[in-house]
Amino acid sequence: MTIPPAAAIGPSTSTSTAASDAVLVTSMIRALAVFRWVTLGGAVIGVILGRSALVEPVAAVVLLGAATGLTGYLYLLGRRRPTELVRWSWLALEVGLGLTLLVADGLVFSDERAQSLPWAWPAAGIAAVGIAAAGRGSSPLLDHAGLLVAVVVGTVSVLSEIVLLGRFSGPDQIGVLFSKIGLWLLVGLLVGPLMRRLLRAERLISVAKAREELARELHDGVLQTLAVVQRRSDDPDLAALARDQENSLRTYLSDDRLIGAAAAPSGRLGEAAVDEAGAGLASMEVTGGLDAVLRRVATDAERRHRLKTQVVVAADCPPLSPAATVAVAGAVTEAVTNAAKHGAAERVTIFAEPNEGDDGATVFVSVHDNGSGFVVDGIIEGIGLSRSIRGRISEQGGRVEIASRPGKGTEVKLWVKADSRWDR
Q: How many CA atoms lie within 13 A of 150 on its CB side?
């Protein structure tokens, strides 16, 4: 067996990572809506309180109306079509309106008023550009896009104060001007690096989950096959080869370098990023309900491990969702494999019945074998128990208990919520 390179987590990793990046970026830009509304409210209050210094009240209303209209539209866009928020057209429009407010400030207030009309509102556009650019890749231009826009906004503000408005004369005007520029530069300087760190953290989580799924699927397929070869082969060389390959694969699956190697920045977020999480639920056929699925699992176990199996499913057992059915089937398969491989069991009973829990209807599933058993508190759970059994069931909101004693066999107990659409 040739172990794949560390970066080769799976074919869907880059797609799901791009989808996670897109969700995080759009969520952060949507969060700017609160900042826009707050700063816009501050501008309105400033106009009301400083109305004695107004020289063009109509212009003030028009400018604030434009800012209110764009703020409201971006808010609705974020709720209905959030992926549109990362388009450069909307980002450019927001930054352009901020520049317009800065340049037109002299039309609103007289020279005696130091405070400008929109001093904080343009910072939202700077932050939005920095967030969107950080999600589109890694390059010097994208990494510092927010800072570059902040420099442009600050330059325009200085030029408008000096050239157009002639306000660069008193200490009050100088203090207000540089406080505004400081805010813009601070936002532009911080938002890009912070967003890149958030994206990397999200990628690490996505890749870790992808590796978890890959490890589980390989364990249930390849590792179980290698275990069967070791148990059934009369050729010591073949059994040794299967054992070596099993050890190599386990070492590969536990290598933490997989996560770091695969958590590279994804491609452009402007492209269609489709989240395929759950699209390949499993290749297992779930038709026929839990009874039919468990009987197929039992039949396969008898063929693979030469066990005697018995399946008992209560007639009033509520149905499970397809995802929960696949999870239970995978967990039961692993439990039966462990019974044969580690417990040298000859018989396994699989039992399922309804169970009323605190959260509503659940299904109780038991896998009981007559193997050698073990001391539950004295073992370290491996991939099979922690991922293929506990991991599967916990993902469906269920729980797992293991009961075993040396010489008394082992019982794996599963509780999974019934399908919420089931009409009791």
A: 25
